[in-house]
Specification:
globular, alpha+beta, Conserved Hypothetical Protein Mth637, Chain: A, 6-stranded mixed sheet, about 130 residues, 2 helices, 6 strands
């Protein structure tokens, strides 16, 4: 007869574990966490469509010593209605893969608003 293994920390069957967020963005209290796939040296500045667990964001700035990321933060600060200092680059300052934390955004770009509303309605439909 096979022995039963004890539950380990991180086992998804353990209901006390915190669930890992899915998708390209999620809320942590009043902070919006955003995973980005950046495109520097683009023809125009724009917030694109999701690609996997990242949101495509293109900026005109060239990728030199993190300048494109700084430019992206400025561009996104206007899109979210916050100061550039309210956006923290968690990782990816000199890489196309980035994570940003946006403190208390006053507005949301439509692609993000739609995603969060859909995600919210799915989680509320699932129940407790």
């Amino acid at each position: 007869m096979a022995k039963k293994r004890p539950k380990r920390a991180g086992n998804p069957e353990d209901s006390n574990q915190i669930k890992k967020p899915s998708g390209f963005c999620y809320w942590e209290n009043e902070v919006l966490v955003l995973n980005i796939l950046g495109t520097p040296a683009a023809k125009s500045d724009k917030i694109g469509k999701p690609k996997g667990n990242q949101l495509k964001v293109s900026v005109k700035a060239t990728p030199k010593a993190g300048r494109a990321t700084d430019y992206m933060v400025d561009f996104l600060s206007n899109a979210f209605g916050v100061r550039a200092s309210d956006i923290e680059v968690v990782f990816g300052r000199t890489n196309v893969n980035k994570q940003l934390r946006i403190k208390a955004p006053t507005k949301l770009p439509s692609i993000i608003d739609k995603f969060l509303k859909k995600k919210s309605s799915l989680s509320s439909a699932a129940g407790p």
